[in-house]
Design a protein that fits this description.
The chain is an alpha/beta fold and 285 residues long. 34% of the residues lie in helices and 19% in strands. The strands form 2 sheets. The protein has an 8-stranded mixed sheet with strand order 6-3-7-2-8-1-10-9, with helices on both faces. A two-stranded antiparallel sheet has the order 4-5.
Length: 285
């Protein structure tokens, strides 16, 4: 059967993608950011998955304020990098895994989670920046990717508890797939940042690092944190962190297994007026 062997958590700051695409990664401002992912790129090569299930939020490219699904799974064979107003990023086409995606949709919907099935969509920086951070700038991505878009843009957004329990349902779905696949699940977005209003530029190091501590040690308790706490402590866009709980809910320890190994942890500010957080957890072998 298929198995989830690891989870990856990372910010998906659009300026990071621009820095890579424009050859600015060696500039002093960006060096510390990209240094934090050197281990991760080697880890990705050494632990290459067969499929990545990538949780992210769309930034008004595939969806608009006219129609925003709470949870949307990409079931297409391929996904084109989106034009977000300055042309598509010069990154490879994202190859999907329609069979596993359809199986997960079937299983999770029957498990009482409502998903929107998307057979065609472009994918924006929320998905491509994490791939670039973990994989560098290859001619093609190292494995198929299943995009899973979560609404954290227009309220009401899903609760941390719902996201955490959805992760558990995704794990059950993957493990019921009758093919020997090594699957990674990624939670992206965050950490603390606010893009507008009097608190624009807000960064809360203490909250961010406490979030990482709790995500590792007690994700079930962390999942009960209400939305207002994210907004107050981490800024209006800090709510993206609920997506990390989907990936954490799919790990073995919260489903009766052993605690995961923390393979890498990284935190840095600033990166385009936001905080960059990153974590890799591996299930016990």
């Amino acid at each position: 059967m298929a198995k989830i062997t690891a989870s990856v958590y990372t910010s998906h700051v659009p300026a990071i993608g621009a820095a890579l695409d424009l050859g600015k990664s060696d500039e002093p401002y960006w060096q510390a950011v990209f240094k934090g992912y050197e281990f991760s790129k080697q880890w990705m090569k050494d632990n290459r998955p067969d499929v990545v299930f990538l949780v992210y939020n769309d930034h008004a490219t595939a969806f608009s304020l006219e129609m925003i699904p709470t949870f949307a799974i990409g079931t297409a064979a391929q996904f084109t990098p989106a034009d977000e107003g300055w042309g598509p990023r010069p990154v490879p086409l994202v190859i999907g895994h329609p069979e596993l995606a359809a199986h997960i949709a079937q299983s999770v919907i029957q498990d009482d989670f409502d998903l929107t099935i998307v057979n065609k969509m472009d994918v924006d920086h929320g998905l491509t920046v994490p791939l670039s951070l973990m994989c560098g700038q290859p001619d093609e991505w190292p494995c198929p990717v299943i995009p899973f878009a979560v609404n954290v843009v227009q309220y009401p957004v899903p609760s941390g508890r719902r996201c955490f329990n959805l992760g558990k349902a995704i794990r059950r779905a993957v493990e019921s797939y009758d093919e020997d696949l090594n699957v990674h699940i990624w939670g992206t977005g965050g950490m603390s940042h606010q893009l507008q209003g009097p608190r624009a530029g807000l960064i809360n190091r203490e909250f961010d690092n406490a979030f990482l501590d709790r995500l590792i040690a007690d994700p079930a308790e962390l999942s009960t944190m209400p939305h207002i706490d994210y907004v107050r402590e981490a800024g209006s866009e800090g709510i993206e962190l609920v997506m990390w709980l989907i990936a954490r809910g799919a790990m073995a320890d919260v489903n009766g297994g052993k605690a995961p190994a923390v393979k890498h942890r990284f935190y840095h500010v600033p990166a385009s007026n936001t905080a960059v957080g990153h974590l890799i957890l591996e299930n016990a072998r």
